[in-house]
Amino acid sequence: MAEANKYEAVIGLEIHAQLATNSKLFCGDATRFGAAPNTHISPITMGHPGTLPKTNKKAVEYAIKMGIACESTIEQNNYFARKNYFYPDLPKGYQISQHTTPLCVGGKVAIQLNGQTSYVQLNRIHLEEDAGKSIHDISPTDTCIDLNRAGTPLIEMVTEPCLHSAEEAFQYVTEVRKLVRWLGICDGNMEEGSLRCDANISVRLKGLTTLGTKVEVKNLNSIRNIKKAIEFEIERLIGLVESGETIIQQTRSFDANNDTTFAIRDKEDANDYRYFPDPDLAPFHITEEYINTIKATLPALPQQLKSAWKSSLGLSDYDVDQITENKEESEFFANWIQTTKHYKAAVNWILGPIREYLHETGLTYTELHTSISQLNDLLDLVESNQLSFANATGKVFRGIVGTNIEALQFAQDHQLIQNNSTDTINQWVEQVLNAHPEKVAAYKKGKKGLMGVFIGEVKKISKGQADPKITTQILEKKLV
Ligand code: ADP
Ligand code: MG
């Protein structure tokens, strides 16, 4: 769309992440996904009169962890507020949330965009409870309600309206998912609804600083859908403005069957939720000391590892991005480089053969830790040209991993050690050239493609032991 260049999209995201606590935010009901409907619903979850909620300390700790990781300011004086509204899957008639004192204020999340680091500014991260679930596709005539999810702890992370493209939103949500998994506070599983996103989108003429009227696309349950929904909305909004229509504030939903969105309701005047402090829950104070204790338990974060490894190990942006994709992998790497200086080779092994091996076997990095000394031997054999990379990864690694066989022993037993002796390779080359005089003649007349055939023959008669580099050098010398 040519007119699109005149406009700038403005996007703000609200992410709800279910905290990976065993029990709910205000009672001992289990939070486990997939239980039989309505089996984790104590009178507290149901809001029966006379019941008293009690705050789950683990949930507060998890929310603070996220706040620290995002460099938010942690609010020390907190209270929970009742957000009153009617909804069938909200058994109490109100949701316990935070109002004027979100647990974490401000902060930022680093993302990679077009090869550069940029920051998404956060407005707040607060704690609240999840609602139950209305299920429309079991019965043709009825809506079924499962209240197991009601009361599950959530953090809601709200960005400033500071994003400007679907790609940027995509990167942000990817990074948030990685971060919650890294911290171990949420499983990040979008299909199961552990991580959900609402996207607020508006457009304005470039250069303007005021915000346009926004639409909100609710409950996006995959990162792909977030991107698709935003792409669709930006085009749709620009189309409306171009044709002179007024944009009305709307709540919309995404239709994954055709990558479009549709209106579910026009926003009436701002909802009046009649917030007030929950009289059953005492305000809670978070001490500086407690914040520091949590800080001390935080693992090194991907962003910190990236810059440390880039400068101290001389790795590329791509390599450090890859090696900090997942916490177990980065811990394995951190551990490995205590005992090797072949940093780049270690990255290559992890990104290639090791990932492949773990993927195939379903094993984890924990199970591979014992193999680090074998891996170091393999790196040394490859670096010193005694073993080809292909044989090291394909045959020797597979042959010795999980055993106590030494790399060199295995390679020798299977005749995989390369012969670097020029004399021996010379003899093999002679043998091959003598056996194929007509091919030698053809090569000399210009059929240079035959080089591959000669190398292959040397490989064959040496049973793969001739170092291919030296073989090529000798062949080139002899064939002039
Ligand atoms: P609401 O009360 O409708 O939920 P908020 O002011 O709390 O609205 O903002 C919700 C999200 O929408 C935030 O991420 C915010 O950055 C974003 N947002 C607010 N106004 C706009 C706008 N005009 N265009 C795009 N995003 C917006
Ligand atoms: Mg909103």
Short structural description:
This protein has 480 residues and is α+β, with helices and mostly antiparallel strands.
Report on the architecture of this protein.
The protein has helices at 43-46, 57-69, 166-183, 223-242, 288-297, 302-313, 317-323, 327-336, 343-361, 365-368, 372-383, 389-400, 407-413, 422-435, 437-444, 450-461, 468-478, and strands spanning 7-18, 73-74, 77-78, 81-84, 94-97, 104-105, 108-113, 116-129, 133-135, 144-146, 153-159, 195-205, 215-220, 250-255, 260-266, 276-277, 284-285. It is α+β, with helices and mostly antiparallel strands and 480 residues long. The chain folds into 3 domains: 2-290, no CATH class; 299-413, no CATH class; 422-478, Arc Repressor Mutant, subunit A. Strands 1, 2, 6, 7, 8, 11, 12, 13, 14 and 15 form a 10-stranded mixed β-sheet that branches. The protein has a 3-stranded antiparallel β-sheet with strand order 5-4-16, with no helix packed on it. Strands 3-17 form a two-stranded antiparallel ribbon. Helix 16 (450-461) crosses helix 17 (468-478). The longest helix has 20 residues, at 223-242.
